[in-house]
Design brief:
Elements lengths: L2 H18 L2 E3 L2 E4 L3 E3 L12 E4 L5 E5 H10 L4 E3 L3 E6 L5 H15 L3 E10 L9 E6 L9 E9 L5 E19 L14 E7 L16 E3 L14 E3 L8 E8 L2 E9 L8 E6 L4 E8 L2 E4 L1
Parallel strand pairs: 1-6, 2-7, 15-19
Antiparallel strand pairs: 3-4, 5-7, 8-11, 9-10, 10-11, 11-12, 13-14, 15-16, 16-17, 17-18, 18-19
Length: 296
Amino acid sequence: MNFRIILSLFLFFGFLFAKENALTLKQKYYCDDETIYASDFFPEIKEDFEVAELKNKSRIQLSSRKLKELFLEKGIEVETSHPVVLVIKSSSYEKEPLVEELKKSFVQSNKNIKIKSIKIKPKSFFEQKNLVLKNIEIPPQNLSNSKGSFSAFYSDEKNNLKRVYFSYEIIAKISVLKAKHNIPNGTILNSINTSIQEVDFKDLRVAPLDTQSLSKSKTKSYIQEGSIITEAMVIEAPDIAKNDEVAMVYKEGGVVITISAKALHDAKIGETVKLKTQSGKTYNAIVTDKKKAKLE
């Protein structure tokens, strides 16, 4: 093969290899200080040098062409794909106190949650400096969502409050009640028609029913098999439900007598319930406990 052809091929593939392995400027970078260094763009650079100053700004746009020329002066060839490069100063604040407060809020609202990790990020540049965290505020509806936003309130030396908006992302598991089969409206939940299962928190859209509420809740609509049972699907179960067999207690001649009677409607402790005995007589009684009532 001709020497010139070999040389041309060598130079061509050498150019392609160099092009493939050249440093390439991205559209956005972050820096920790007022001074922007070459290592903020390319951490692998051995001899670092200053590139620009933020000058008390939280972000700055730099010309890709000028950056390319600056790097070339230092003997470093870079490629560009955007006309400008945005450099943003990283926010400086204490994350742990915020994460702990957020964790408390979610655990308080979701008793069966197992939190693996929480990521937070201010929605705009924020430098805490001498500010002291007072408290956080999160919309109630967000406590059932794995992603969302919350506010943090900070105070300065003069007790002036500053509100900072953050976004969050939570990775967690949570125990929920699921319908074992189709559950009709008006059914009291129990271990026969539901099961406790662990699901990803991100699969929730609204607050799930607390697993401790089993047998205390009654469906207020039809629930399809496999559905996660939420607070919105149920109402508080009555202490005596319609058609329940109730222990009706009354006194006769100083003797306490208990007989069985059927409830004609739902009732809670302290309310009056109408009961029907096997003989067909009806009585009004005060509900004293689960499936128990005392004749008025």
